[in-house]
Amino acid sequence: MDSKAAFSFINTLLLKKTREGLNECEQDVILGIWEGKTYQEISEEKVRDFQYVKETGPKLFKKIEGVLGIKVSKTTFKPTIEQFWQEQQSVEQASCLSNVRVEVEQASCLSNVRVEEVVRSHPDSPTVSDDRLITHPFLPLSGIVDDPELFFDRNSETREIFTLLNSGSSVALIGERAIGKSSLLKAICREAPTQLHSLRQPIYLNLQGLKNEDEFYTALCDEVGIPKCRGYSLTRELKRHRLLLAIDELEKMTWEGFTQEVRAQLRGLAEGTNAPLRLILAARDPLDSLFQDSHALGMTSPLAGICYQVDLGPWDEATIRAFIAYRLQFPRLQPLAVPVRFTEEEILHLIAASGGHPQKLMQLCYQTYQWIIDN
Ligand SMILES: Nc1ncnc2c1ncn2[C@@H]1O[C@H](COP(=O)(O)OP(=O)(O)O)[C@@H](O)[C@H]1O
Ligand SMILES: [Mg+2]
Asked: What is the CATH number of domain 3-74?
């Protein structure tokens, strides 16, 4: 959702409820906040009085809260509106899907050709113009979800992570295998330019592809764009940089080839509010239990000491339902794909069998969808 779509979404809702749309200054404030701008920047760019722009923001938030019943502030504006938009979509899709289901059910007593015609001519069928069509609504079945449109939810964790990062803390994202850690790390890197209060260059490093700490330093320096170095030279080089360093598969640092030194250096570079590094680390186990060598030396793990732990758990029932509804009406689904609706019984089974684990849910939904269209 870009800033213009966000403005039009909010404006339409307010217009529907109050018969009054937003004014130009409110429009500029929404577009600006969405693009991560400060009130100062918005006022300069739009040649508006700074004080007026600054007062318009909080008034607008109050209006949104009063009319739409959702609490927003400058920092929570974007994720909250995005989440609200998704909820609205799910509701609309659910009602639209039941209409489509009735149409298809009625048509199924006719020939297959006829069914296809009904589907094709349905006004809500996706259009062919999108060149990034997908062949199945429940993909990918494994690996990082790095396409923003395929990445679902994780709004509260994203908010919590940015609050922590903006307060000067580093973050350890802990969760079981395939719960969505890597996908969330990528999303955090994507959103960093608009969500971090002070600008940091996001860098994503997956330790899975790196043999030892020498390769780690090489990869880090390559990404930052500085000559390969480590130790004091690295500290000196990084003084001029402000980075958000996302390290995935951190457990690899417990393997041979990685010493405690690299963790101590990362800690040194990430300590303090204006430090060169702010870290977000993904691992299956809490850092303290991951790095047992520090305990042997009578110390706490250097990274555990500076990272606040955020646990990544399964989706709750409401999120599972929203995910299913959203994917069944996915706009980029092949235009000729037959619209499918999962029955309440199927949904209850998917909730119970997946336990809200995103990958299990994806795989089970994949099978359910396939079974429906094959039968
Ligand atoms: N937010 C999400 N949106 C959509 N699918 C997800 C999400 N999180 C996880 N998945 C599903 O789980 C799979 C594994 O996700 P991944 O991020 O690689 O997990 P982890 O890094 O924890 O092992 C993805 O391929 C996808 O099927
Ligand atoms: Mg991963």
From this structure: 1.10.10
